[in-house]
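CORE FACILITY INTAKE
Project code: CF-77B
Contact: R.S. (postdoc)
Sample description: multi-component assembly, three entities in total
Requested service: structural model of the whole complex
Turnaround: standard
Below are the sequence entries exactly as provided by the requester. Do not edit them.
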Amino acid sequence: MTGRKLIMTFPVTETSHLLADYQARGGYQTLAKALREMRPEEITKEVVASGILGHGGAAFPAGRKWGVIKLNDEQPHFLCANADEGEPGTFKDRWILENAPHLLLESMLIAAYALQVRNAFVYIRGEFDLPYRRLAAAVEEAYAAGYFGERILGTDFACDIVIYRGAGSYVCGEASALITSIEGRKGYPRNRPPRLTVRGLYQRPTVINNVETLANVTAIVARGGEAFRTVGTAKSPGTQLVSISGHVQRPGVYEVEYGYPLAKFIYEDCGGVLGGGKLKCIVPGGISTKVLTAAEIETVTYDHVSLTAAGSGVGSGGMVVIAEGTCMVRLLQILLRFYHHESCGQCTPCREGMGWMHRIIDRIVAGEGRMDDIDQLVRISKANDGTTICGMGDAAGYATLGIIAKYRDEFEYYIEYKRSRLDGRLEVPQAEFAHG
Amino acid sequence: MVEFFINDQPVQAEDNQTVMQAARAHGFFIPYFCWHPQLSVPGNCRICMVEVTNEGQAAGSGWLDIACNMPITRGMRVLTDSERVRARRKETLQFITLNHPVDCGICDKAGECTLQDYHYEYNGSPSISRDAKVHATKHFPLSERIVLDNERCIMCTRCVRFTREVSRSDALGVVNRGDHSLIRPVEDGRFEQDAYSDNVIDICPVGALLSTRFLHKARVWYLEPTASVCPGCERGCTVNIWHRKNEWKLKALDAKQNARIDRVTPLENAAVNGPWICNKGRDLAQIFERARADQCLLKGRPVDLQTAIASARALIAAARRPVALVSNWGSNEELAAYRQALGERFTSFVKTDWQPVSGEPLEDDLLIRPDKNPNTAAARALFPPLPADVGSAFPADTDLVLVWGEGFSFAQLPPRARIIYLNSWLQPENGHADVFLPISVMTERRGHYTNFEGTVSAFEPCFASAPGVAHAQDLFAALVTRAVAVST
Amino acid sequence: MKHLIPEFDAMRRRYPPGAESSLVLPCLRRIQEDRGYVADSDIAELAAYIPVPRIQVEEVLAHYTQYRRAPIGRWHLQVCHNLSCSMRGAEGALGHLQRKLGTEPGQTTADGRFTLSTAECLGSCGTAPVVMVNDAYHENMSPARIDALLQELAK
């Protein structure tokens, strides 16, 4: 048991995602309470009181974001759920979309009411199929039940929702690129200012929250923000849906209460390293967080303070377990290939830097590396830190710096001997087709 | 107003100015590629990053961010040239030149290239990359007028934004992602119809967008710009006409190369055209390099200037009903001289030298005006326009018509009237006039034009007129008074 | 594209006023679903229908990986080769498919049935290795399961 649960509070069955099951669990009663007993600003107040941090990777206090929206400013506001989930290693929002779509929808309705939003959007990555179909079906059920449209639950509140499907672009998970995509354009992030809560979708005040962040809103409003805080830690209230994969015995999505010991989670709850091998390191929260070695995770609890103090972060909750024997040079090659493929190309450091790093790592892996290639990768990473339009440049830099800092010797070996010290291994022996 | 500090100097900025705008307004230079005063701010090149601390923060503890999108807060302290800023610029230039071909030796932009200039001022160091450069299309025909070199392109998107925000043709875009991004024209060929397309050549900070007409014709340092006014329509955009500098007029070259219009670019003018001109203004060589008349004629028979003047003077003195058709390409000075000398003597009408050419854009809400002549306003302030029924301009007893400028068919003249013709161009009518006098064009003298809004703009001479070609301004007085000598 | 206009009209009504530009992505998806790819003629028609500048449609087609401007095989097999999938057998899965189909990534089999590609993270890392078959995720793809899949698709 990985601590208390707020979201994965019911057994997943063939029907648990359907409206009837959700209602049987108390679904949409919090919406009723919100619409009938609370004013919009009171709802935002609860979200602020909860202290909930965004679950998309940036960990920005959601209540503070909501608080920027000026009520009654006589212009449309928009709410977007970020279901782009493209960060490698991350598949936890998918769990919500497939298994608890109505939880998301109820939360979005409560949020829309709090933020005076008439038109809400869910931006879902284009590749997702079952999650999209489940969500679309849930939206239809919700409309049929009168939870969307005009005069919801007999009140003046009206809200419509559109599920906007992406079309294959990781950078559209970045909030400003996401809304630019909803506007029917390329996924180009925007410079700030202006903040999106001031001028966002179609230049209107917009709140973009990760799916999991929004999914928590129902619980926050149901119990109250202060009560929400009793779960988790002081600085990291609540829980995190962790998607764990890689060289792990029991991959999947787990709800982990913040503060839970990380090593315990990996070794006990997830069954430890696949095939019983030794842990080399983990990617804690999506590839854009710095790797932590097996030794380093011994003293880490799963929360923002502890992970940041260890030199990494909660990130997107996409945890990847890496066993001893894995070649970190080939691993970095995958990451840099990915960032190069996904760079939107707008700004100089990322556009040129991603391709550059990819070409360098390809050369190293092909046995044509030179010793100063390592320092060049470091230099390029640092030149992307805080210099780009969006966080992707920084992310690629952190991933690279983290791996080189802790496994520089593997790179030096590869360059000197023109081959991997670990036979270029990415899989552990029992890993290949372990599912049979 | 907001007070803040740039390089420790207090600066008063307007509300809503960015650091970039306030810095420029106060004479501080912050480098930029993608920023342009007339276009939206994309903030993609990152070369304008500056160092900032807020009121009360310790120096050196601040952050770096782009100046072009940075709002000003009271008391903020901006450094445009600190150690950290310099280091940041060097890194940015490393990235910009990473895949840049650096083929300045064969690039037309050399000598006026922002990337060259910044490289020398801010970096100077060769690339640290060991990897092959990404290759892309070297010679992509963006349109019949513009060729695109994708390798030189630094993706500043000025050209794209120009077509979205200024010319509104929406004809350029960026396709693909990452370092495979490419500037491309819309696939239906609409960029060919963008009457302002060539402005992207000016605003491109590197040699990615080049004029096909100017391609490989001259090094820019052989050329100098002379301020002038485009005669293409009554907007009267101010332009720079580029031609060979005196010291580069080599004897070994074909003489024509020393006396040609190499290219035309906008001369920025807040009152008239801002920093833009339409494509017609680029093609002024097509107007001015037509065959010139350089020989006086009496009914087709070559004579010297003094003979021709004397004949004309005699005709004018003897005329009982003289009518004049005044050129709306005449400069303010020429018109004044005409009026002074002949305005009383002749019943004068302003003719329309140029009609719109088939296929030429007539009018739009940017610069292009329907009257394709440069000085109709000034001419009509003095004289009435030629009536639509041309015949009604000539009383039955008209015995002399003075025609000034091109574009008028002699078939419309009363058959018995004598004709004095002043024209610059080698045209068949020249030989039909009783007296023909070749005159200079605007690129050969100083003068002013008045545009349709009454704004007066000056043009300067680029070239000398040929021997035998007089300035109309000098001729008019000589046509009434023997005492006035005319030089050529 | 004309026969899709009633659907597009219905889509349009779901967006707030002034948000027509949003129609670009969903309409392109629908066109591609219908035709199998987006034809050049579709671009002009869609731009005129919405309306948006045509260049916007061209840029969108070139930016997002899921759009195709030319037909491909009946079955598009996309093998994720990102981190977790590579750590759980993606290279083997890809190699197996290459051998079985006789194609490289990016190619289509001669009979036009299968197009093989690689893909970046599909968000299914817990059930790696993952192969996307047209719209569907096929998870835990061992060689045996790949063989079964190919047999199924060949029918």
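Facility notes:
- Residues 392-417 of chain A form the longest helix (26 residues).
- Chain A has 18 helices and eleven strands.
Invoice: internal transfer
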